[in-house]
Amino acid sequence: MIESPHGRMAQRLALAIPALLLGGAYISEYVFGLFPCEMCWWQRWPHFAALGFAALSIVAPPKRVLVTLSALAMVVSGLIGGFHAGVEYGWWEGITDCAVTAAVAGVSAVDAIMTAPIVRCDKSPWDLFGISLAGWNFLISCGAGCANMALLFKGRA
């Protein structure tokens, strides 16, 4: 059961971490103009799934399974982020010719395509302490996913 204090904490983290990371991604995009590349989007999809599993765990059984799926989805996002960070740091090549044109609102489709900035997957638009956003996603998502799993197993004892 998830009624243990550790299980409830895992459930709360499973809801909070993907919500905060997705919120940060959208704030960086819409407030600070850091448009996502293709691999950035790849990292968001598992967080959407993690958020959905965590939200579902609040209202539907089996709660432990849903929180576990949320934790696994966070780890998947983190692993994609780790791969993306490696591409940004030049450790290896990306698996696609990854460049996306950022959407420009309020203009015709042709003008939007012609004036939109190109967002490359191999260039980090921002970093903190030398760690790119993809690198931070790797650290936070993998850490939180593993912490959630540890809390769930600790809650069983």
List the helices and strands and how they pair.
Elements: H1 5-30, H2 38-59, H3 63-88, E1 99-101, H4 109-115, E2 118-120, E3 127-128, E4 131-132, H5 133-156
Antiparallel strand pairs: 1-2, 3-4
Describe the structure.
This protein has 157 residues and is mostly helical. It has one domain: Bromodomain-like (Up-down Bundle), CATH 1.20.1550. The protein is built from five helices and four strands. The strands form two sheets. Strands 1-2 form a two-stranded antiparallel sheet. A two-stranded antiparallel sheet has the order 3-4. A hairpin with a 2-residue loop joins strand 3 and strand 4. Its main location: membrane. This is Disulfide bond formation protein B. Pfam families: DsbB.
Q: How do the SSEs run, as a string of H and E? A: HHHEHEEEH
Distance between the termini: 11 Å
CATH topology: Bromodomain-like
Number of DSSP helical runs: 5
Secondary-structure-based class equals mainly alpha
Overall mean pLDDT: 84
The gist of it:
The protein has helices at about 5-30, 40-60, 65-90, 110-115, 135-155; strands at about 100, 120, 125-130, 130. With about 160 residues, it is mainly alpha-helical. The termini are close together.
